[in-house]
Design goal:
By secondary structure, the chain is an alpha/beta fold. The chain is built from 5 helices and 5 strands.
């Protein structure tokens, strides 16, 4: 099984950014743990702060991979283009958010990704990525 985690803007700052909300672990450290835990999965990781690069990566992998785990971060709430990219591909997408977006500012309650996603996981911290991987394995 070949899966990719695609993270959007500011998620490169995990471990430094608002640790009370996002925790103190870097995503790179967490990703290494995921690779160790899910040895049967070919797991890749991509992060960009640039909307167009995220769209290009979704289009690049969206017909060949078994699954995409997408945390579009703030672009979730603003990018029609990312939502359209998710709808345009064949590979199933699970939308993940570290925080409980339903308990945050009202503008974060809107997602342009969810309508094209196979499922949505939010509010479980980094554990949401593990839950998303497991969803592809069942």
């Amino acid at each position: 099984m070949k899966l990719i985690i695609i993270n959007g803007p500011n998620l490169n700052l995990l471990g430094k950014r608002e640790p009370e909300l996002y925790g103190s672990e870097t995503f790179e450290d967490f990703f290494s743990k995921l690779q160790f835990k899910f040895k049967e999965v070919q797991l890749e990781y991509f992060q960009s702060n640039i909307e167009g690069e995220l769209i290009e990566k979704i289009q690049e992998v969206g017909f060949d991979y078994d699954g995409i785990i997408l945390n579009a971060a703030a672009y979730t709430h603003t990018s029609v283009g990312l939502g359209d990219a998710v709808k345009a591909i064949e590979t199933p997408v699970v939308e993940v958010h570290i925080s409980n977006i339903a308990a945050r500012e009202a503008f974060r309650h809107q997602s342009h990704i969810s309508a094209g996603a196979a499922g949505v996981i939010f509010g479980f911290g980094l554990k949401g990525y593990e839950l998303a991987i497991r969803s592809f394995l069942i």
